[in-house]
Amino acid sequence: MRRKGSLWQSILRALGDEAPLMTGVGRIMLLVILNVCLLLGMMPVITGGAAWLALYTVLLERKKWNYVTACGQFFRVLRKTLASSILPWLLTLLAVGGVTAAWRIVLIWGWTNQFFLLLPLLLATAGIAFTALWLYPLAAVSGMSWRQAVPAAFLLGLRELWRSLALLALEALLIALALCCAEGPLTLTGLWLLVGITPIELLKLRLIAGKLPKSA
Fold first, then answer.
1. Taking residues 11-31, what's their average pLDDT?
2. pTM summary value
3. Spatial separation of the C-alpha atoms in residues 147 and 88, rounded to whole Å
4. C-alpha distances in angstroms, 80 versus 37, 75, 137, 142, 152?
5. Integer distance in angstroms from the first to the last C-alpha of the chain?
6. I need a surface site. Which of 13, 63, 148, 153 has the fewest CB within 10 A?
7. d(CA 147, CA 79)
8. What is the C-alpha R_g of the chain?
9. Does the pLDDT of residue 215 top 90, yes or no?
10. Which pLDDT value is given to residue 205?
11. 154, 127 in Cβ contact below 8 A?
């Protein structure tokens, strides 16, 4: 009887809220919930900026939330920041779409050997990419207005150049995984929809969190 009781107590301890196993399960579930919330929040497209801002806000404060409360906090932040984030998000999409179209024209017409054409395009691409990658984490943690956050994100991207390059590499990995999952079996696509984005975004935050200014 003692052995059975001891075994049962060990099982209960392993399944307790503070047990390493359950803590790990809770962290995974938190990322799953936030992944789904992000995809739902971005579905109207125009709400994409607020959705990314909400994701970074919850991830930065993830110790306060669990997979039950994180969803509510995500949509509270989304509603609160929606109006102010629409214009920055549309400008972000316009800038990214513009450089993408420019690179497509360069490749189609074979202008890759035109140095004086490629140099400004490379500089513009780097500036837009660095700003976009730092902008939403910076806005989430600092409480800056968008007018302040945009130039601050650009300067941070230049000052922390190696981190910016690492962010670009992670972004490229994210896009590659998305394309592979989209063309793969349905199970792989479902896995992506559940937890394809948030682990990489959490890794990005851990990479740059120490360089983001504290809330004003």
1. 59
2. 0.85
3. 9
4. 15, 8, 16, 16, 22
5. 60
6. 63
7. 20
8. 21
9. no
10. 93
11. yes
